[in-house]
Amino acid sequence: MKNIAIRLVLGIALLLWAWDMTFPWQKAMQAEQNRYTQIQHSKTLRVGMINHPLSYFVGANGQEGIEFDLANAFANYLKVKLQIESYPSSEMLFQALKKGEVDIVAAGLLFNLDNIKEFQIGASYYSASWQVVYQKGTQRPYKIEDIKGELVIPAGSAVLPILQQLKENNPQLHWIINDQFTQEELLLQVAEGKIPYTVATSVDVSAAQHIKPNVAVGFDLTDESPVVWYLANNAYSELQAALLEFMHQANETGVIARIEEKYFNHLTQFDYVDSQSYLKAIESTLPKYQHLFEKYRGDLEWQMLAAIAYQESHWDPNATSPTGVRGIMMLTRDTADRMNIKDRTNPEQSVKAGSEYLHLLMSRLPNTIAKEDRIWFGLAAYNMGLGHLIDVRRLTKQLGGDPDNWLDVKKNLPRLAEKRYYSDLKYGYARGFEAFNYVENIRRYYHSIINYQRVKEQASENKRQEEQTTEQDNSIKKPSKLENETPNSKEL
Known about the structure:
Elements: H1 2-42, E1 44-49, E2 57-59, E3 62-64, H2 66-78, E4 81-86, H3 90-99, E5 104-105, H4 113-116, E6 119-121, E7 126-128, E8 130-135, E9 151-154, H5 160-169, E10 176-178, H6 183-191, E11 197-201, H7 202-209, E12 215-220, E13 225-227, E14 230-232, H8 238-253, H9 255-263, H10 272-284, H11 286-295, H12 302-313, H13 333-338, H14 347-363, H15 374-384, H16 386-398, H17 406-412, H18 419-422, H19 432-477, H20 481-484
Parallel strand pairs: 1-4, 1-5, 9-10, 9-11
Antiparallel strand pairs: 2-3, 5-14, 6-14, 7-13, 8-11, 8-12
Helix pairs in contact: 2-9, 11-12, 11-14, 12-19, 14-15, 15-16, 15-19, 16-17
């Protein structure tokens, strides 16, 4: 009987041990497995992002940005809806990922070996480096030892661990962490001479240069690294596998290339002198004609119409070319007659006719062309004629490309000037390389106006808030009238 009791106790102990060993493990495995299955069950993909002028922002068309477009495509791939959770810094992004508040973080985050220990990663889709930035016209730093002033870093920046590692071999390296300004705001402060240096990714630097050309690169703090998405580090990897497969398909089908074309490619065309002249024109000349661009924008954003006019005439209503085109939209006599205007040098008539003509060309494009690409096809036709656009679309198809894909078509524009190609085309020779540059310049001017206005509005809002805070502080410090007054007999 005693042996039976002992065996019974041992059996219960073993059962409890097995339960203790197995149940937590099973529970953990189930919890980790739920990272993917829960997305399918809830039909929602939660992605953490940082509000950023390239990665994620709310524009005229709603939520936009490189990371948003790519995350939205991934959500469609999973057949679930996308839910964006915005955080102020990369540090808080990773904290949210650890806590399970989001499934993925995507915010232009560079690959970091230290993060592999704590997180899973997805495939890379572009590369960038960390760069030390200074104001153009001041002494350029070529290496860490040349940094003689304050190096200001935004709070929670992903570059902080890198700086800490570099300090081990460069003890003279010092920096100040600022929790009041974003990375973009610090870049603009460098351009204005308010702070001597900051560190930002090469992509952020390039974008800032189109707003403030005085942003200059001193040196690369790190080598180029891939930009990746991070996922929680689970025993199960279904979500990571799905993401890697999606990224592969997105590369194969051109989804990533189209997103890069939309947000990135115009950044590669930076010209300091041209950018300086353009930004001065935005401040001094654009206000004279903005109401016309707003009035006749049609289906376009008025900033796009303004960018076209700048490319055409630099907003000069009396501009004239040797070939006879003139006015702020540089119209030919035939186009002016077709649009029923009499004076091409009249700014309102010119803007009205130019906009209507562009809309006419776009209305004649095939419906198979994506909505977001129609403007680029229309601009190419505006520059070189609809016939030559038809030719380059046919040529693109002959060469194995997609005639409805602007990325494929624009690559073939320069070939319209090559005899081996244009000799077999219906409309013959065309200066396609000019049409290529024409569209690319307009894209650059358009984004510069958008970002310039965004930064200006943000600066005005910050100033308003500072003034409001100052007024509140003064009202608290200033004694009230009742506290200073002594009641007299008359008042009593």
